[in-house]
What does this fold into?
Amino acid sequence: MTVISSADLELRRTVEALDKRYLWHPYTEMGSWIDKSQPLVIKSAAGSRLHDFDGRSFIDGNASWWTSLLGHNHPRLVEALVRQAGVLSHCSLAGMTHEPAARLAAELVAVAPGDLMHVFFSDDGSTAIEVAVKLAVQYWRQMGSPDRYRFVALDGAFHGETLAPTALGGVAEFRRPFERIVMDVIHVPAGSSGIARAFSQLHEVLSQNADSIAAVVIEPMLQGCAGMRLHSAGYLSELRKVTREFGVLLVADEVFTGYGRTGPFWACEHADVVPDILCTAKGFSGGMLPMAATLAKDFVFQAFVGEKSRAFYYGHTFCGNPLGAAVAREVLNVYRDENILEQAKPKAARIAAAFEALSSRPYVSNARSLGMMGALDLVGDGGYFGESGWRVYEEALRRGAYIRPLGNVMYITPALNIPDADLEELLDIIDKSLLAAFEK
Ligand SMILES: Cc1ncc(COP(=O)(O)O)c(C=O)c1O
It folds into this structure.
């Protein structure tokens, strides 16, 4: 039995009381949170595990909202952060520059698909998308096509929290409250909903509206918040083909899919597609600090060069923050030195086999996997508000794994370097939790 020190017990109670009194949690109905008898209070994390004040440890099945791709507190990232903090913690990129941002930009371009070669830093996935949206609109304005200011996105899309990403978003529950204040976006069926229908609607929308469309924005291969929906590499190449045909920009949101989540470093590589603009965040800074980047091709960049009025008047206070940049540089070094993508291959194969085996369960209507992601659609209605996934979540928590669902979709997106033993334990917990939730 775990013995909890009285200091830990006291601290947990204090945190819980302060939390319930003052903190407003994301994606949470706060009444039920406040009523919860003993919420999870995390004390520390290391590798693929979260530790609470009661001496319990939980395998982090979603790498803390898909960010800790190298596990928590990777020693090399911690060291890079501490080292940089002693030198330069922050200075803006307004009228000056610094080594971490300049080197990171070069290193990111070196691993980026094709000829993406200009890097604009921001804070998180949402701001990376805001940058892409504003770049696209201003690009067309400066190219003499100011009427191209609308966007095309996929049904079920998720691109973040601020207003432009909300407008692009296709998850009804997140979009509905803001419907009246978001910009005009045309949503087309995603490739997951039948490839022929998706192709023909995309074609139709672009052929009828090309003169008013600035860009098509997509989550390549894998739509995360939609419920881990997959589309084929063929759909992605077709998207590239038609956007080129109609002269529309293609923006790839690799915030979730980048850094090897789906197998290759970028999901766009599945189809050898090079978008005109690419957004990265989350794993980009190893889940340690808010940090994001939007990469653009040279033809986009050149539209902003020349007169003062053509500049991109945009920039968050912390863009290119030296701490984030130093950590993001070290993330790339770790991927290279620890051969992260190669090491993840057998783990991905193990996830694929385990989820395939679960597909025959009577309460599973669909099972799928791609790279380091495995997902199950569980029986039940309600979309994002569905309860089935939460039944499994509670069972898994009791057994030592954190697998927050998306409604009735139960999924895992663990760290790419999750130790094999932890992965086996996670898969075993899922198996047992499903049995307990549906067969007991
Ligand atoms: C594909 C995608 N884009 C953008 C975002 C927004 O990222 P952030 O929460 O860092 O703003 C997310 C977040 O989950 C995402 O999955």
